[in-house]
Design brief:
nine-stranded parallel beta sheet
């Protein structure tokens, strides 16, 4: 329609697609049990969502052959948002786990570039996610390092997740640094503590909008038996509504939108991603196991366990 306002493309998905073990496994909840012969988790996931955030690249740099297979197993419009290897954002953690040096050289940058190149060639590479730890406090050295990282990966769309409040206390300077490099400041939802970053989920006109919802399990955020327990949280439809409204507002001004759910325990991220897709008027394709609806009965009428499409009922 002539004169109609263009709205940004909205992609909704989860952080990771493979959680095969532990109490928070997706097996038998999102993925069927027993599995049919030749079952492929990524193929199954990509039939239901058009983007995924790759977390495994934080722990190890994949081979180009691995990322090439990811591209081959997904539909043409599918996109992978790829988390940077921990050496780039958590150098102390990397040094402790590897027994190596925390310093980064050209060979490290080249290795990561080679790893993601098959996704870029296939047109399936979304933003690179630089997720910094809460200990990454804004000071002169941190600003200089972030500037180096932005320049180093400046030929890719880069989304930067900062967690310490010192960055939002200097919001204008932080935003100016990111804007100058064409990078995106990731909006996050997680339990809030005194040192936690403060954000308003407003989009920057003409820029990417990238949001991550980690859950609000404050009781087990720092004190947990297993890391997966931190992400044991299911957002209610009432809690999701402000994010749906923020995305709808962002769609009027942003260039493109990514909304990723990281509350992955027992596929709760899948449930909340499906709820948000429905709320924002997107199709919720694919059949889900009966066990999924048993675990998340609020999704009845939104997802289906048969070839029949769900009805128009709303969760919101």
């Amino acid at each position: 329609m002539q004169g109609a306002q263009r709205r940004a493309e909205i992609r909704i998905g989860t952080s990771g697609w493979s959680y095969p073990s532990g109490r928070g496994s997706w097996n038998g909840v999102f993925y069927p049990s027993p599995r049919p012969a030749g079952f492929d988790e990524l193929v199954y996931y990509a039939e239901r969502f058009d983007t995924v955030e790759v977390n495994s690249t934080f722990y190890r740099v994949p081979s180009p052959a691995t990322t090439r297979r990811w591209a081959e197993r997904t539909p043409p419009r599918f996109e992978f948002a790829v988390k940077l290897f921990q050496q780039f954002t958590h150098p102390r953690m990397f040094a402790e786990r590897s027994g190596g040096e925390a310093s980064i050289g050209p060979a490290d940058v080249d290795a990561f570039r080679r790893a993601i190149d098959p996704l870029a060639v296939a047109g399936k590479l979304g933003p690179l996610l630089a997720q910094f730890p809460p200990s990454f406090v804004r000071d002169e050295a941190a600003v200089a390092y972030l500037g180096w990282l932005l320049e180093t990966f400046g030929d890719h769309a880069l989304a930067v997740e900062l967690r310490h409040r010192s960055w939002s206390d200097a919001a204008d300077d932080t935003r100016a640094l990111l804007d100058a490099a064409g990078a995106t400041w990731v909006q996050i939802d997680e339990p809030k503590f005194r040192s936690s970053i403060r954000q308003d989920f407003r989009a920057t006109p003409g820029a990417l909008f990238y949001a991550r919802l980690h859950g609000r399990n404050a009781g087990e955020w720092w004190d947990h038996e297993r890391t997966e327990d931190r992400y044991d949280y299911l957002y209610s439809s009432e809690e999701l509504e402000p994010f749906a409204e923020a995305v709808a507002d962002a769609a009027r001004v942003a260039r493109k939108i990514y909304l990723l759910l990281n509350n992955h325990f027992e596929a709760k991220a899948v449930a909340n991603a499906a709820m948000l897709k429905h709320r924002l008027g997107q199709p919720v394709p694919g059949a889900y196991p009966e066990a999924f609806l048993s675990r998340f009965p609020a999704l009845a009428g939104t997802v289906t366990t048969s070839a029949r499409r769900p009805g128009p009922g709303s969760l919101f």
